[in-house]
Structure formats: C-alpha cells, structure tokens
Amino acid sequence: MTIAVLSEVAAGAEDLSIWPASTELLPHGGLAVGGVSLAEVADRFDTPAYVLDEGEVRGRCRTYLDAFPEADVLYAAKAFLSRAMVRWVREEGLGLDVCSAGELELAVTAGFPPERIVLHGNAKSPRDLEAALRLGVGRIVIDGPSEIARIAAAVGPHGHQKVMVRVVPGVSAGGHDKIRTGTDDQKFGLSLTDGGAQHAITRILSQPQLELTGLHCHIGSQITDVKPYLVALRRMVGLMARIRDAHGTVLPELDMGGGHGIAYRPGEPALDLTALARRLRAELIEGCAAARLTVPRLAVEPGRAVVGPAGVALYRVLAVKHTGEKVFVAVDGGMSDNPRPALYGVRYAPRLIGRRSTAGPRTATVVGRHCEAGDILAADVELPGDIRPGDLLAVPVAGAYQLSMASGYNLVGRPAVIAVHEGSARVLVRRETLEDFRSRDIGA
Length: 444
Hints:
Blueprint: E1 24-25, E2 31-33, E3 36-37, H1 38-45, E4 49-53, H2 54-67, E5 71-76, H3 83-92, E6 95-98, H4 101-109, E7 117-119, H5 126-135, E8 139-142, H6 146-155, E9 161-168, E10 190-191, H7 196-205, E11 210-216, H8 227-247, E12 253-255, H9 273-291, E13 297-300, H10 304-307, E14 311-323, E15 326-331, H11 340-344, E16 351-353, E17 361-367, E18 376-384, E19 392-396, E20 416-421, E21 424-429, H12 434-440
Parallel strand pairs: 4-20, 5-6, 5-13, 6-7, 7-8, 8-9, 9-10, 9-11, 11-12, 12-13, 15-17
Antiparallel strand pairs: 1-2, 2-3, 4-14, 14-15, 14-19, 16-19, 17-18, 20-21
Helix pairs in contact: 4-5, 8-9
C-alpha cells in the first residue's frame, strides 16, 4: 500500500526514538511501521494486537553478528517464539536457546537445525530431556547436580551428549530483583562461591558419555551497564583456569548469556552493544593470556534486545474514567497480554494514533480490563486531554516477554501477532478465540 508520509518527520524524531527504525509519521496523527499504517492494522485485524516489524528483527540480528564476528549469537526464544521468528533467526545466521520441549520442538519442526540449539532450564522435565536427546540438541546446560545423573542415564552408556555448566558468578545485575540471576540467593545455576560448580564439573568429567564443552552464566536481565559482564567474565575465566589445573581439561566454550537492556521510554538508558562486544573480547583475551589459557569461543544470548524494540502493541480505548484528580483510560487488553507492569513495575510510553488531537496533554493511567487493581499497563503517562472511547493507543517496545508470558485470565484470549514488512501485513499467530477455550475444556 502507498502511504503519504509527513515531511516534518524530524519534528517527531525524539518521540520516535524507541520505535522501530521503519516508523513514519502519517497525516492526521497516524503512524506507520514497516510501511503499514497501524490504524489500518487495528481495523483489519482487530485489537488487542501485536505488530512485529520483520525488518527490525532481521536488522537487529545482523547488528549482533556485526558486533560479535568471532562469537556465537544465540537468540533467546523465551522472549518471543513463532515459526516465522524461527525462520528469520535461522536465515540471519543466529543460533537458538530454548527452555522447554515446547520451544525446542516448535523450532525444529519449523526447520531450525537442532545442533545450533542450546537447552536451558533450572528444572528440566523428563519430556524436555527426551526431546533434546531425540532431536539431537547441540548443548544441554546443566543447572543443578541432579541433572548430571539424569542426563547420563538418558544418554545411555554408549551415547554422547555435549553439555555446559551454568555457573553463578556472584554478580548482582538487572533491572529488578525478580530478574537478577547472577547471585547465590536465586534458583538458577551452581554456585562458584560454595564450590557447587566445581564439584559438578568433577562429576561431569567422570561421565564418559557427557562431553563438557564449556561454562555458561547469565547474570540477569535488562542490564544497561557493561561492567557487571566484565566482572562475571573474569570469574568465569578464573574458574576455567582452575579446571585446567585440577583436571587437565581446557574448555573451548564460554557462554556469557544475555540480559542486554533496552529503552522502553525515550531518554532511558540502553546497553551499548558495541562497547559490550569490544570490552568482553578484550577482557577475555587479556584474562586468558594472564592465565595461560587458550581463548575459548564466546557466545551471547540476546532475546529482548533482538525482538523487544521490533514490537508494537495496539489497544482500543473502552472507557475513560475521572476519579478525583486521577484519569483512568481502560483498554481492551491488560495483564493477560502483558503481565510485566504488574510483575516488575515496567513503564511504557503509549501514544494516541489514528487521529490528531489539538487538546493539551493530561496525566493518565492506562489500565486493563481484568479483575485486578494491579492491572495497569502504563501509570502516569501523558495523553491528550480529549482521549475518548474508540481511540487507538499504540505501545512501542512490545515485542519481548508479552505474548510469551500471556495468560488465559478471564478467558479474554491472547492477541494476534501481525508481521509488517515492506508495506504488507500478515498474521503470524492468530487470535485466541472462545472456541479455543471450549475445545480444551473436555470435562462434563
């Protein structure tokens, strides 16, 4: 479709800084992403809906490969996964990290090479391990001591499986307590400080059917500072040197996880990817030289930083309520399609689209339709003072950890995912319907 774009795009450039690079201002207050009007997407596919810019996803994959030319870049599927996403990631040359048999089987059945997949998880089910071994997953990351015997038994005396060990390096980093995973007071990994990691490594090396290829750590999510990664890397290199000294084994791989932070609102900090790549590589080379270690192959696992900024959530306003000095703008979605504000206090920057308002701004809170006082999508944001039922709101940076964490609360149904690219729009994931709920409920 052909879209008339405003010539004064530069006037709104600051407002669009967190939107996909393809975003364009349209006449009458509209926005286009991937060459498609968001208002037209809402009219054609209904709301709530997620819009995913294919070009932005692919561009961010390439940015990572350019920044880490001598490393493996694995897309973290938990951020968002669909068959189309699998294809984009595969075609752009990334690997994949998954956390369940469901993610693994979807990826493999969509054509992703299993040898380029890493399986994570602090509590892997028998089905997870069975699928990993049956499909030939490239690496299994051992998260706890009980997994060693379980995996060895499942592999069998004549089998072979490459594994890594998730190490807790004792580094606190991340945007919220609930997403900090580098310290000993949470459920993931094996501790460096209490010797748990070292003991597990000794046990793995005694299992001939398990090949320990390297160490893994993931210190948290939504991290915007390079320094915690450097501290964690030093500790991992130190452990690799101790493994070499104790066992004569030089591990060839080091996976530093992901958690790379992005901006959700204009002016917020984001992780400097170029600086991260440069400083990680320099620290790795220097640390290995000091320890007289062969430099291992580095791996990183971005998820949010690849798909988050490529997504836009679309909502229709259902009601506007003035309660004292507060203005509540209720939309047709909520915590069932985005639980992150309720879980982590995440703040978004919604924008009125589809019409141009001449009213002055007013502070409002965008709330969902669910039966929870905590069902808030965006607290204390600036919206036009004449916001009204029927208006469209677009929320940028909505590609990660929204649909993947969506629920069936109130049987509202999860939204559709619409891909936009070069002026066309298509459904990637259809909207969940009442018939879906009825068909699953087989009791009498």
